[in-house]
Amino acid sequence: MGQVHVMDHPLIQHKLTIIRDKATGTKVFREVADEIAMLMAYEITRDLELEDTMVETPVVTAKAKTLSGKKLGVVPILRAGLGMVEGVVNMIPAAKVGHIGMYRDETTFEPVEYFIKMPSDISERTLIVVDPMLATGGSAILAMDALKKRGATNIKFMCMVAAPEGVKALQEKHPDVDIYIAALDEGLNEDGYIVPGLGDAGDRLFGTK
Ligand code: URA
Fold first, then answer.
1. What is the ipTM of this complex?
2. Of 21, 33, 72, 78, which one has the greatest count of Cβ atoms within 10 A?
């Protein structure tokens, strides 16, 4: 079963409260979401492998550590996932960015994939799929299906706010995917919003309504 990691670092929790606040406008929402993504990227990369190297400091030549070169990819689920890309890429500049787009079918309410563009070496990369909200889990599950179909074998899912329903659904369908969240909220309301949540993440990031 995929593990759930709740990143309850005080800075992350503080910033999350700012973006939960309905009085927070688009500019600040975007900036703070970016900062949260950066802090989460710091935590999610905690297990990256290191190798030994030598470094010449101004004083001596010393043994030191460097990343072992394992390749990473960041995959935002469009559109709201875009709000987390910059923060992650700031921390991991060598990461490639793939995109996956999904819309909700108005009759079935099921997510439908309409766009996907991935790095060609997807099977060699650890992919960090990002979406600020994990509500029912439908989009995340479909994104994992699409990535695995194209050869991905090592995927992590990172979101800011999750509902227990979404976590359970994603764990059941993709037990190999570890889930990294900033907060596990109470659940979903009758309109599909996470409670207490932060509203529609895409609308708040891009100023649409
Ligand atoms: N997507 C959002 O943007 N917000 C929610 O509360 C649920 C899904």
1. 0.95
2. 33
Q: Please choose, from the candidates 87, 85, 88, the residue with its C-alpha nearest in 3D space to the C-alpha of residue 100.
A: 85
User: How many distinct structural domains can be found in the chain?
Assistant: 1
Q: Which amino acid is at 207?
A: G
Residue 197 lies inside a defined structural domain of this protein: yes
Structure tokens at 171: 């764990």
What are the angstrom distances between the C-alpha of 179 and each of 64, 147, 169?
A: 31, 16, 12
For Cα atoms 3, 135, 117, give the angle at the middle one, nearest 5 degrees: 80
Binding region: 79, 104, 131-139, 194, 199-201
Quick: pLDDT tens for 111-138. Answer: 899 999 999 999 999 999 999 999 999 9
**Which positions of the chain have pLDDT values less than 70?**
none
For the stretch 99-110, pLDDT in tens is: 999 987 777 778
Q: Which residues of 128-141 are buried (b: 16+ CB within 10 A; e: fewer)?
A: bbbbbbbbbbbbbb
Name every protein residue with a CB atom under 6 angstroms from any ligand 1 atom: 80, 133, 135, 192-194, 197, 200-202
Provide the domain limits for residue 164: 4-45+72-206
